[in-house]
UniProtKB/TrEMBL annotation:
Organism: Bifidobacterium panos
Membrane spanning stretches: none
Catalytic activity: ATP + protein L-histidine = ADP + protein N-phospho-L-histidine
Subcellular localization, as worded in the UniProt entry: Cell membrane
Record keyword Phosphoprotein present: yes
EC number: 2.7.13.3
Keywords per UniProt: Kinase, Phosphoprotein, Transferase, Two-component regulatory system
Keyword Transferase found: yes
Signal peptide interval: none
Residues of the Histidine kinase domain: 41-275
Full-protein interval shown: 141 to 423 of 423
Name of this chain's protein: Sensor-like histidine kinase SenX3
Amino acid sequence: TSARYLKVRVSEIGGDQYAIFVSDISEQRRFANMRRDFVTNVSHELKTPAGAISLLAETITDAANDPDAVRYFSGRVAKESERLTELVQRLIDLQKAQDARGTLEAKRLSVLAVVRAAIEANRVQAHNRHIELVPSFDGKPVADELTEGEPDATIRCDESAITTAVKNLIENAIHYSSERTTVRIAITRQHQPNQPGGTVAIRVIDQGIGIPAASIDRIFERFYRVDPARSRQTGGTGLGLAITKHCVEDCGGTITVWSREREGSTFTIELPEVASQEEERQS
Ligand code: ADP
């Protein structure tokens, strides 16, 4: 077990009587530590591209007479500023996901609609890397577009939170896979016999590099990256999964991961299934 921090206060309560108050401040301490680490991480992450930009600017000034060099270094400036923008956007997303509890709008949503939106948001990245995105529902292929009478499941979630979560998982699956591989997005309904309600699982399954066993417990931490060098090169921030986890939990769901190095990873979001509007009306 981790260390506990106790605050002790002695108070005179009249005459020569004293009372000792002991409060457990371990949680507060842990929270303060986490906040300090977070600020340190953010500063470090922001300083890296900011430092690179100022160095590149100097280089451009020095190379003013060499158009090729100017072009090359300007391109690098653009890349580094993109990185800064992405990081700031991710920080805003994280803040939103953390503050969201209670302010989210839980709506009845079609799981298929959420998955389609998340796939659509990743279409270009997948295409650029020749990666096929293959959705299925209870093992059967799903058409690209809404089809009359197709099987579906209903969840009760904030639309933006759950779409962000699925979108991030697909984005990572593409990111950490080789070209010409497949990313499957499998929706399955799980019903316990004789029990009301069930759950619906959304799995994002890749054939990518996988996650070492030693890292698997840490990947949902803010700023944790298995390979910071690779991740930075490919534009990772280490915030995506932290945001994803918040989003899923805000929707009353859970997220788990299975992975084996060089084989691939499977991220599973599980959410309670609810009655659709139509089913509700009929009952
Ligand atoms: P990043 O922006 O670096 O991708 P994330 O929070 O999304 O940050 O992920 C944290 C780390 O988990 C990544 O840096 C990567 O090492 C690992 N990871 C996440 N998804 C996958 C995946 N599908 N396959 C392999 N590794 C992954």
